[in-house]
Amino acid sequence: MTKQHSTTAAAGDDQLRRVLGLPALVFFGLVYMVPLTIFTTYGIVTETTGGRTAGAYLVTLAAMLFTAASYGIMVKRFPVAGSAYSYTNIAFGPNVGFLAGWSLLLDYLFIPMINYLLIGLFLNIAFPAVPAWVFVLVCIALVTVLNVMGIRSVAKASNLIVGAQVIFIVVFIALSCHSLGNGPVDWLAPLAGDGSKPGFDPLMAGAAVLCLSFLGFDAVSTLAEETRDARRDVPRAIMLTTLVAGALFTLLAYLSQLAIPGSHFDNADAAANEVMLQIGGQFLANFFTAAYVAGSLGSALASQAAVSRIIYSMGRDRLLPERFFGTLSARFGTPVNATLLVSAVSLIALVISLETLASLISFGALVAFSAVNMAVLRTHLLAKGQPKNLLLHGVVPLVGLALTLWLWTSLSSLTLTIGLIWFAIGIAYLLVLTGGFRRNVKVADFSEAG
Length: 450
Prior knowledge:
mainly alpha, Amino acid/polyamine transporter I, globular, AA-permease/SLC12A_dom, APC_superfamily, Putrescine importer PuuP
């Protein structure tokens, strides 16, 4: 890989501030993933699996842990910002790294947007006199200010939001357990189902949908250059975030299924409301709405922080205009210009539909997951002169890659079409940057990270 210039956080004055520890990283990852996101697809997956949502979550968690382990392996050796973009860059060179980063942008740019859209929809239902676009604009402004002020502000706000959701989860669990004392309970029903959709295929179909719940554990890796001990804490945070979120998803799905056995709802999209009303009445339904909106705000906060650092990393490497995107604010030490760009793109939430937006998120994430698993194989198992662990550097990424490729089969034709169009635009831009592939794109020097 050609070393054009050295501008990493390890060298020079223009660097991100290392202020984060393990607890802050785990909170950041949990906020990004939104613990209450289970209720977004709960009704759909329950009907798909025949009442086996909790079992489907266990399948999904097992699959995600392999890719999470691959992220941990890469960040332990290369503690740099940029996530899958940087790892692919290191493993396969700058041109392939650029295409991985370009695909990853599709995922990361739309995650803040979908949170703003959800906030507007939910708050408009609660306060119909206020148009949804007002809530969207206020949230974009608030999140932008917090991200410009610095990662400490993001971490503090993230802690508060996770705290609010933890309180809701505790109340939900307590009321669920109380409601189960009113009659006989089939404790195996959430795993065995109601018999309406027997077999393994429906369970796997539900698990494929639930992979969306885990999008974001990789966002922790984007904060590697702002972590005090990145090689130790970031891999731990990635695994802890995945495990804690998966356990929460499974527990909440299990209790919800016990509260309302079976797999049929009056409205599958709003099944969460039926669950809340059954368990705790209108009080719990209102509490859920407040906690869900808070979680969406926190996810927007964390996801905007993550994508702005990916854009900064690509600008620093001169893959995007360096003078605008590859610099940090002298006052706040944050990528302000990249943050403002993400906010501007998020304004599309004012005009796009939820269904269309939701269909665009998976493509970039699955590209990133595949790229990171292959990067582990390239930089560890196949690299000369490096210590090798066949299980850790071979079996783990190969299983992660196989499971990720299997998930591609669950993508809709619309998602594949738009994703491939985005990828084609990236190739066209790369042609311009490289003069028709006659040279490599310019990249940062990652040698100190290795």
